[in-house]
Write a structure and sequence with these properties.
Elements (H helix, E strand, L loop, with lengths): L1 H12 L4 E5 L5 E4 L2 E3 L8 H8 L5 H10 L2 E7 L3 E10 L3 E8 L15 H12 L2 H4 L8 H12 L4 E5 L5 E4 L2 E4 L8 H5 L3 H9 L2 E7 L3 E10 L2 E9 L24 E7 L5 H15 L3 E6 L13 E6 L7 H8 L6 E4 L5 H12 L3 E7 L3 H10 L6 H11 E11 L6 E9 L2 H8 L6 H7 L8 H10 L5 H7 L3 H9 L1
Parallel strand pairs: 13-17, 13-18, 14-15, 14-16, 16-17
Antiparallel strand pairs: 1-2, 1-6, 2-3, 4-5, 5-6, 7-8, 7-12, 8-9, 10-11, 11-12, 18-19
Helix pairs in contact: 10-11, 11-13, 12-13, 13-14, 16-17, 16-18
């Protein structure tokens, strides 16, 4: 086992916790779901088996044949304990996932054949070790609940906490200190366990919690040069209705699509998650579907109906990453998939495949608009796959919604301005041929098909007296186009 030990040492030295060896694929290293660079050539099946050595005992091989899965514990001298999930791959190949902290794992016995449900339970146990399934926060403290409640009374969207500094809230996009009282210990305020404090030094983490009389919050905890910090996003207690979002043009008809990819893009804090949640809830209301969500973390509550089912999975808790969750989801009889974020080439490839094979995929991506969203998806994939990805996008992409939140001209709060690209036959041809530079023109000329440019949306809001011209200019991608719409 000396050969695999050398790789496991690299995993630990790099602050990662997971190693994946798959026949005929490049090994992968992940740090709590986030990919880390590991430059090792593609491994043949013989090489993978040589690395695994005694882990592939006759007993384990029998388990793979009988159950399609084998889970073992491996104690690497001077490195640590790993839970190893072994599964068949392709024609005679094998996949091995090493997860750090597998002390609770035990060798699976072949005495009793497993049902599908039992096998699913075992997969969940292997993918997320017990040490990582425990919530990093022991619960919502009274002090944190009080702070969140005060932030909610101010209609804040976010609460920022830092060791030794006063709490800060974001209201209508502007920052404001709550008071002059500095919290000395953010870890105590958040109720972090000792283990979580240690882990936070090497990595950030996310968690979602329900707070009485306020609703749900998403907490992102991270280390800074000045100490521990946390960003707390306040969320409504349930997914809002699409009508309540006050969109300038309707696009909720997308939830009736039988299949295809619907993208919502924008910067952090632009309301992408809210829009996705409202579309998912609308799909549950209108259709008889199985909805599977992959989120990091779970945010809005989605209410199933008498005709629909909801299956929610949190990245890092029920599943290691978006790609793994998508692979699982395709075997869970879904009609609609909600992917909280398309982050990497593998997730993108799986989402496109799902959209092509009869599923409606609702997903978000960080980009400034529809054109950059298409370019980012293509550029996230290896150059040799660009033509294939463009062809898949041309076939499966249905709508791209880019949105911004702009302060209201009167009263309080923010209002959305959107860019919408409806993928017609002509737009699909531009995507397939790599002519993304022509997409803005296609959006401008596609008003009759339901497309609208961000600048026209902003100008319409200004003319209606809903937002100020200076705020429209601050959010526009093309100032000349905005000025032209305002003057017309």
């Amino acid at each position: 086992m000396a050969r695999v030990n050398s790789l496991l040492s690299i995993v630990i030295d790099q602050g990662a916790n997971e190693l994946r060896l798959v026949s005929d694929k490049e090994p992968k290293m992940l740090a709590y779901g986030a990919p880390r660079k590991l430059s090792i050539p593609t491994m043949s099946d013989e090489t993978v088996r040589a690395f695994l050595g005694d882990l592939l005992s006759p007993e384990t091989e029998q388990l793979l044949r009988d159950n399609g899965r084998a889970d073992v514990r491996y104690d690497a001298p001077d490195i640590g304990t790993f839970h190893v999930a072994l599964t068949p791959h392709g024609e005679g190949g094998i996949s091995a996932v090493f997860m750090k902290g597998g002390a609770s794992a035990s060798r699976v016995t072949a005495a009793t054949p497993r049902t599908d449900a039992a096998r699913a339970d075992a997969i969940h146990e292997a993918v997320v070790p017990a040490s990582d399934r425990e919530p990093p926060m022991s619960g919502v403290s009274a002090d944190l609940a009080s702070l969140v409640s005060r932030a909610a009374q101010l209609r804040a969207s976010d609460l920022h906490l830092t060791d030794g500094e006063p709490p800060v809230v974001r209201v209508d996009g502007a920052l404001r200190r709550l008071d002059d009282t500095a919290f000395r210990d953010v870890a105590s305020l958040l109720g972090l366990s000792d283990g979580a404090k240690e882990r936070t030094r090497a990595r950030s983490f996310d968690a979602g919690y329900d707070i009485a009389d306020v609703g749900r919050v998403r907490v992102h905890v991270f280390s800074t040069a000045d100490g521990l910090a946390a960003a707390v996003r306040l969320l409504p207690p349930s997914a809002p209705s699409f009508a309540s979002l006050d969109m300038p043009v309707p696009f909720d008809d997308v939830v009736s699509l039988p299949h295809g990819l619907v993208l919502v893009c924008g910067a952090t804090g632009s309301g992408k998650s809210t829009t996705l949640a409202s579309l998912a809830q609308e799909a549950l209301r209108r259709r008889s579907i199985v909805l599977v969500t992959l989120e990091d973390p779970i945010e809005y509550k989605l209410a199933p109906t008498a005709r629909s089912l909801v299956r929610r999975r949190q990245v890092g808790r029920e599943v290691t990453d978006f790609a793994s969750g998508l692979r699982d989801a395709l075997r869970e009889d879904p009609d609609v998939l909600l992917v909280g974020e398309m982050r990497d080439a593998e997730t993108i490839a799986l989402a496109l495949t799902a959209a092509e094979t009869g599923h409606l995929v609702l997903a978000s991506i960080h980009s400034r608009g529809a054109t950059s969203a298409v370019e980012r998806i293509v550029d996230a994939c290896p150059p040799e796959r660009h033509a294939q990805v463009r062809a898949q996008l041309a076939e499966s992409l249905r709508v791209v919604v880019g949105q911004r939140l702009v302060p209201r001209a009167r009263g309080t709060g923010r209002i959305p301005a959107v860019e919408i690209l409806r993928v017609t036959r002509g737009v699909a041809s531009l995507i397939r041929e790599g002519k993304t530079a022509q997409l803005p023109s296609a959006i401008q000329s596609g008003r009759k098909d339901g497309s609208i440019s961000l600048e026209r949306s902003l100008a319409d809001r200004v003319k209606a007296g809903e937002i100020r011209a200076e705020d429209a200019r601050a959010n526009a991608n093309d100032l000349d186009a905005l000025q032209s719409y305002l003057a017309s």
